[in-house]
Amino acid sequence: MLNFLNNSGKNEADNGSYNNTNIPVTLQQGLSLSPYMNVDPSYLPINQPEFIFPDGAVKQRGRFELAFGQIGAACIIGAGIGGATGLYRGIKATSIAGETGKLRRTQLINHVMKGGANMANSLGVITIMYTCAGMGITWIRGTDDSFNTVGAAAASAALFRSAAGVRKAGFAAAIAAGVATIYSVWNNGGFSSQRVREWNTYRS
User: Fold this and answer.
1) How would you class 43 by CB atoms within 10 Å of its CB: exposed for 0-12, middle for 13-18, buried for 19 or more?
2) What is the pLDDT of residues 131-164, one digit of tens each?
């Protein structure tokens, strides 16, 4: 423990002076030694990683860990979009019907709640399908990359629209695969010239 008392026993920490010469204030490397912490900065790792991972561990969250946030975000976004759409439709419908006062307010609330619930439910179900498909493809292939993202998006869209027929399911899968491809390219560095050169080198 540091001693802030001088030889006469008077505490001089309050007046800003420190006369204890028993503790060195400089090191051989020229680094300062804090008289309050008594820690040698040369022993502190500077270039070491901030987190310690076990051997063989992946330094990013997996699809299962990301699923909860993705599902919640999809439901919130769906509720917002559906609520706004329902409000627009409610205003239009009540204006045509000539409703006013409490009746119109009740109809607007019903449209907002119905539209928000339907859209939140739809996006939440699609996200659950996407997450399950992504985890399944990752388990089958043994790796997690952009191909899993594109495949999971196409599979979830096709499954969600399967009740409407094969043609519409295939069309939805194509759109979802295209959007997932654009996202994967953007997430991996975009269409920069350096990235294009890397692709050409990989293809050759």
Assistant:
1) exposed
2) 999 889 988 888 888 888 899 999 999 999 998 8
